[in-house]
Write a structure and sequence with these properties.
CATH topology of the largest domain in chain A: Rossmann fold
Order of helices and strands of chain A: HEHEEEEHEHEEHEHEHEHEHEHHHHEEEE
Strand order of the largest sheet of chain B: 1-3-2
CATH architecture of chain B: Orthogonal Bundle
Number of domains of chain A: 2
Distance between the termini of chain B: 23 Å
Shape of chain B: globular
Order of helices and strands of chain B: HHHHEEEHHEEHHHHHHHHH
Structural class of chain B: mainly alpha
Largest sheet of chain B: 3 strands, mixed
Structural class of chain A: alpha/beta
Number of helices of chain B: 15
CATH topology of chain B: ABC transporter involved in vitamin B12 uptake, BtuC
Largest interface: A-B, 57 and 66 residues
Number of helices of chain A: 13
CATH class of the largest domain in chain A: Alpha Beta
Strand content of chain A: 15-25%
Number of domains of chain B: 1
Oligomer: heterodimer
Helix content of chain A: 40-55%
């Protein structure tokens, strides 16, 4: 009994040792001349956000390939980080902290594209901010929580910038606009008179739910409740029976699909009927970019908002964005799984523009975006089909685009652009 | 429970145990010094590819996290390994410890209740030097540690009390219940009370930032920063702080085990009925196991909050309790060194190990397998293999090995032994 185990252990050890040696030799690739810089993406590569993250990484790789991995005089190399764990199937606080510390420790790295989740950004930004050679720039393609850049909860946003200098920017607009736009659309186009809001009790869900609630109430929509759903419940029949008694015109799901959103959508239809019927269903961008949701029969007719321009719009708009999408399809055989993929490219464009103007140091790269005149990408080059302009004072994008989509024929279909006053 | 070979409890066995402990302690101390020097002195000046290698395989933040896992695993080892009380809800103490840090080591206290808005209290504290964040309660990290430890110990008693009448599976279920309830309360604790006036935990948003770790009086040594926050250069020093906590937990575990209480725990673990007949007070002994185990959870919770820079409710789920239990079982239930090694190994596999080994395999064989996504598969496989071939863990305690190697009760009974007696 003992001998085979020892043999297995010896083989395993030998394997590990070999692997370790191999790691040493391949590690040399990161070394290079003074004109070489590394940028990284920091995304949840496991769990429900995997598809969205993979297509974002793929779109960025494709874009870098197309521009010959060049930003001005600099050669740019991409490194991908995963901020999720298999155990959670979602971003993880300790992994975010570890990634942030590794971004700082990797001296070749000058800027980070990410994160996908605002909660993770709130852990990483302060670490990057205190980088003694920085602060180090982070540009997010998907963080919509307002607190990262604006006065929101107590201590926000200054608590993310301990050094006193900003180092965070984003190319999407924030939830305070998204929730409001959803409410305006619901009232003006869908004729909703009363709404029942469910939130997933997370930072993002509560934020977008609150902004929807505030705007809805201001528009005269009756808000019956804004209450959390429990992501761990096996089914929501009881919850929807309760909602049914209140007879709302619409249920608004403020949260992310990862939090058992599929079951929620199924049970909504089972109890309250089809989404095209008396009770409409609407969700924020936390429900966009999930092929499995789109394929769900019960999800058909669900309205979604997206804090930017959708892939459909970008295709129709032509220009750089449409070309990139066509190339993406040619290379990978499918469309990007998420509207955020091209926003990932847009965030990389901001980073590259900053690198091009900089002296190659982290501090200088950050300053290009968050000091002086800031960075802008002209409309004919931008991956999102229109000019990207980052406000150097806050790091927010000046464009406020909210798109409304509906899930139809197993995919997200663009319906309208909604402006927010 | 004397057996033929070993005789734990004799003077010779005790002396042997002491010398083993000393060897382990010296060995780990040397490892700590080497790792510290490596990350603080050698690596920053090393060639780029050496740096890359270490960053990938063993980054300093992964090491820090692993050391904290050791603290938690040792705490659980007291409950599960020493006293034999199967606890599936240990994550609750991690959470409570973390939230103590959130409550008294951050600006958060000022937003807990409306009229506390202007609250500013600092007890040797180190509030962050950012405008508007000096409100709330800021207690010195070193004072928060015992406070959180005692707070968790108290909760250990509260959770332990209703479980006293239960054994094995039933006990496990009740602890599982508590392990789910406490994180749920914290996750939903943003608006508590009438009209939601009280903000207990800031809900899913979590509490950040927590104060840095002050290093006075060590900071008089040139080169040591005054406080350890989130700067990259602080990490090797944080490693020392976390190792200090782990060493404290190891020391307490070893010393308690030798003493009256520890022997009472082992007696309960091996035969509760016999222990109580021999005069071991079951209630007191079991409750103290929960309390001491929870104390370690409190220490670790505070330290983990400083590692991440805040407390975030989404961390505290069931998988954490299970991972900790696996660390204890794989390492060798009851053996402090075994659990330490088990925790370090599993923590490494979870953070960077599996991913790197996977990448290595992918690049060596030209495959494209997403190894981290098979983490639980491999994890389960390791558990199954261990249980089939080495039930007692990597480094088993002598006693555990003897117990596991004893013939099964059924075997003894089949040859005529009467173990049960008549029901009373």
């Amino acid at each position: 009994m003992v001998k085979p185990i020892k043999a297995v252990a010896a083989v395993a050890l030998a394997g590990l040792a070999l692997a370790a040696c191999g790691g040493g030799s391949s590690g040399a690739a990161g070394d290079g001349g003074g004109k070489k810089v590394v940028i990284s993406t920091d995304l949840p590569l496991q769990g429900a956000s995997k598809d969205a993250s993979d297509s974002t990484n793929n779109a960025i790789k494709l874009y870098l390939e197309q521009i010959g991995n060049k930003a001005g005089d600099y050669t740019v190399e991409l490194k991908t980080y995963d901020n999720s764990t298999a155990a959670k199937g979602a971003w993880d606080d300790a992994t975010c902290a570890k990634n942030a510390q590794e971004h700082v420790a990797n001296t070749a790295e000058v800027a980070v594209m990410g994160t996908f989740n605002s909660g993770c950004a709130k852990i990483e930004v302060p670490v990057l901010n205190q980088d003694p050679t920085g602060p180090m720039l982070m540009v997010s393609h998907a963080n919509t929580n307002p607190g990262l850049t604006k006065t929101w909860d107590p201590g926000e946003p200054q608590k993310y910038y301990p050094s006193g200098t900003r180092n965070y920017a984003r190319v999407v607009t924030t939830d305070d606009y998204q929730g409001a736009a959803a409410a305006i659309y619901a009232q003006s186009k869908l004729g909703v008179k009363s709404v029942y809001i469910l939130n997933d009790n997370q930072t993002y869900g509560q934020g977008v739910g609150k902004s929807f609630e505030t705007k809805a109430a201001a528009l005269g929509i009756k808000v019956i409740a804004n209450e959390p759903w429990d992501a761990k419940q096996a089914n929501y029949t009881a919850l929807f029976n309760k909602i049914n008694a209140a007879k709302p015109d619409m249920v608004y799901l403020a949260g992310i699909y990862d939090n058992n959103g599929g079951q929620l959508v199924k049970d909504k239809v089972a109890v309250l009927g089809d989404n095209a019927g008396a009770v409409k269903l609407m969700g924020p961008d936390g429900f966009t970019g999930y092929p499995e949701l789109n394929k769900l029969p019960q999800a058909q007719g669900m309205y979604l908002t997206f804090a930017g321009l959708t892939t459909d719009q970008l295709k129709a708009g032509g220009g750089a964005a449409a070309k990139l999408l066509a190339d993406y399809k040619a290379k990978y055989g499918v469309d990007p799984a998420s509207n955020y993929a091209l926003y990932g490219v847009a965030a990389v464009q901001v980073i590259l523009a900053a690198i091009e103007k900089s002296d190659g140091s982290r501090k200088s790269v950050t300053e290009q975006v968050l000091a002086g005149t800031g960075v802008s990408i002209p409309a004919d080059k931008a991956a999102i089909g229109k000019e990207i302009k980052i406000d150097p004072a806050t790091g927010d994008t000046t464009a406020i685009d909210i798109s409304v989509e509906v899930i139809k024929d197993n995919k997200e279909t663009f319906v309208a652009a909604q402006t927010v006053s | 429970m004397a057996t033929t070979t070993a005789a734990p409890g004799t003077a010779a066995a005790a002396a042997k145990a002491h010398s083993t402990n000393r060897k382990w302690a010296v060995g780990l101390l040397i490892a700590v010094v080497v790792i510290f020097l490596l990350y603080s002195q050698i690596l920053p000046n090393a060639p780029a590819d050496v740096q890359t290698f270490f960053r990938r395989w063993l980054s300093v933040s992964a090491v820090n996290e692993a050391v904290l896992w050791v603290v938690f695993a040792l705490g659980l080892n007291i409950v599960v390994g020493y006293a034999g009380l199967l606890d599936l809800g240990y994550v609750a103490f991690w959470a409570l410890g973390g939230y103590v840090a959130g409550w008294i080591m951050s600006p958060f206290a000022s937003s807990m209740y409306k009229s506390w808005g202007g609250l500013k209290l600092s007890i040797l504290g180190h509030p962050p030097a950012i405008e508007g964040l000096d409100t709330g309660i800021h207690v010195n990290f070193w004072l928060v540690l015992p406070i959180a430890g005692l707070f968790c110990a108290l909760w250990g008693l509260i959770i332990g009390a209703p479980t006293l009448r239960l054994k094995s599976d039933y006990l496990a279920l009740v602890t599982l219940g508590f392990g789910e309830i406490i994180p749920q309360i914290l996750r939903n604790g943003e608006r508590i009370g009438p009209n939601g006036v009280f903000n207990l935990s800031n809900g899913d948003k979590g509490i950040s930032p927590v104060d840095p770790i002050p290093t006075w009086p060590v900071s008089y040594i040139p080169g040591v920063p005054d406080e350890l926050a989130l700067k990259a250069s602080d990490l090797p020093y944080k490693f020392l702080v976390y190792c200090l906590l782990a060493a404290f937990t190891i020391f307490v575990s070893l010393r308690i085990r030798e003493g009256r209480l520890g022997r009472a725990w082992l007696a309960i673990r091996e035969d509760e009925l016999a222990a109580s007949m021999m005069g071991v007070p079951l209630m007191k002994t079991k409750l103290s196991a929960y309390a001491v185990g929870a104390f370690a959870g409190g220490l670790g919770g505070v330290a983990f909050a400083t590692h991440v820079g805040g407390v975030f409710a989404s961390r505290f789920d069931f998988a954490i309790s299970i991972t900790l239990l696996a660390m204890v079982v794989l390492g060798g239930m009851g053996n402090v060194w075994g659990v330490t090694i088990g925790a370090l190994a599993l923590a490494w596999i979870n953070s960077t190990g599996l991913e790197q080994v996977g990448q290595q395999i992918n690049s060596s064989f030209g495959t494209d397998i997403d190894f981290p996504s098979y983490q639980f598969l491999l994890f389960g496989l390791i558990l199954i293999l261990m249980m089939l071939f080495r039930r007692e863990g990597l480094l088993p305690e002598t006693r555990t090995r003897q117990v596991l190697q004893e013939p099964e009760r059924g075997d003894l009974e089949s040859v005529g032994a009467d173990l049960e007696g008549e029901p009373v």
